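To the team - pyridoxal-5'-phosphate complex, inputs and output below.
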Amino acid sequence: MTDIPSAPLALQLDSAALKANWLWLAQRSGAAACGAAIKANAYGLGAIETLKHLKAAGCRDFFVATWEEAAEVLPHLDGASLSVLHGVREADMAFAVTTPVRPVLNSPEQIARWKAANGGPCDIMIDTGMNRLGLDANDVKADLFDGLEIETLMSHLACADEDGHQLNMVQPMIFRQLARKISARRLSLANSAGILAGEEFAFDLTRPGLALYGGIQRAEGTGHIQPVVQPRAQILQRRVVRGGESVGYGATYVADRQREAAIINIGYADGYYRAFSGMGAAKLGDLLLPVMGRVSMDLVTIDVDGAPELREGDWVDIDFDLAMGSAFSGMSQYELLTGLGRRFSRDWI
Ligand SMILES: *Cc1c(COP(=O)(O)O)cnc(C)c1O
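Output:
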């Protein structure tokens, strides 16, 4: 059989940058251990490869959202610890109890289910003001936890990316109070932004996600957190756009004079969203090649007037600065990463 042709679009993933980001976050975590959230396919990068690189850097504690995600990385754990943030449903139990993976129990129902099955070590999430997943403070009574072997007691910060938000004072305080009533081996509160907010958020174990993958939400990360994800796309065609002619759907771009254009193999179905229409750019070295007109589902047209050497089949980098892309698209850095689609080949360097 002949080989399947390679993809005309790629995510170039920088393992050295990923490791450096984890090491920096581990250092910022002080005495606390530093874990990694690899849910949502490691924010789009690919869960298995990301796990392997982070393990090589020294990471021992991983977090996914669902048991399906746990099953994918389970064969690659090699003794590292894995927790499932979304707890256990009845439908998860048969699988869950056969694994060394811990559920993060979020409700009295989940706790009862895990106890009844004699499920083994578990984690507990308590809510300290976000009102998302986690036990309500009123449900925290000592006998609720009788018979449980709690490895990590955790809570989650709602506003760690906003310096000075009142919840950043309140949540660690409530967490400390509730933790006194629950016996757990380790306490864990901080996500990426929580680590940057200060060591008082770190407790025994931190759980960064976004910052590992190059996201910067707080000034403390600037100059330290490195980009990991570089989307690239292949040129499918080069053409001349004459003065006064338009480009793309809706004819939103009209050439002021004759210009050279290249059509590249990426579009909003790949997570290069329509917000990049007329705003985004590709890059050749330092030279910016602006997007002309609207982003299509599978194609983008870029201005290559300044790059006469580019031809069909050549590759260009996509300008994918997360903070900047987020600022002009109104989408979060999380959405930009997790939106990167299935058609990219994911190539680690
Ligand atoms: C996703 C998630 C994290 C990681 O958050 P980032 O903001 O990406 O660092 C940590 N803890 C919990 C409970 C999460 O759901």
